[in-house]
Amino acid sequence: QVQLVESGGGLVQPGGSLRLSCTASGVTFSSCAMSWYRQAPGKQRELVAGISIGGETTNYLDSVKGRFTISRDNAKNTVYLQMNSLKPEDTAVYYCSAVLSRSWTRYWGQGTQVTVSS
């Protein structure tokens, strides 16, 4: 069974930082492109950041560029999202997602709540 287990969410004040982690099991992590999505209540799920299999390429939602950094450690089967200078509009459930190359099968984590509020 493929599992993506997230951690690191929580409540922070505006301007604060969080680092989200997602550890994969049951799949060859080094064959998966990884990404982070987020969804606020009543809103569409949106792609926040993505990273290629080898980490050579990253992409970001415009509103998080310069503040968020996605990275991966294939030896640990883990993808990270470092979130700095957090804003209230970053409040959402953040989901880790993996896409297995060749088959293009997509897997989702359970989501972790990030709340930015004073």
Number of helices: 0
**What multimeric state do the chains show?**
single chain
How many β strands by DSSP? Answer: 11
Which structural class should the secondary elements be placed in? mainly beta
What is the overall shape? Answer: globular
Q: List the helices and strands in order.
A: EEEEEEEEEEE
Q: In terms of per-residue confidence, which ranges show pLDDT below 50 for 5 or more consecutive residues?
A: none
Distance N terminus to C terminus?
Answer: 40 Å
- Give helix % range: under 10%
Beta percentage is: over 45%
Biggest sheet, open or closed, and with what strands and sense?
7 strands, mixed
Radius of gyration, whole Å: 14 Å
Provide mean pLDDT, rounded: 97
Describe the protein.
The protein is an all-beta fold and 118 residues long. Helix content is 0%, strand content 53%. The protein is built from no helices and eleven strands. It has strands at residues 3-7, 10-12, 18-25, 32-39, 46-51, 58-60, 68-73, 78-83, 92-100, 106-108, 112-116. Strands 2, 4, 5, 6, 9, 10 and 11 form a seven-stranded mixed beta sheet that branches. A four-stranded antiparallel beta sheet has the order 1-3-8-7, with no helix packed on it. A hairpin with a 4-residue loop joins strand 7 and strand 8. The protein is globular, with a radius of gyration of 14 Å.
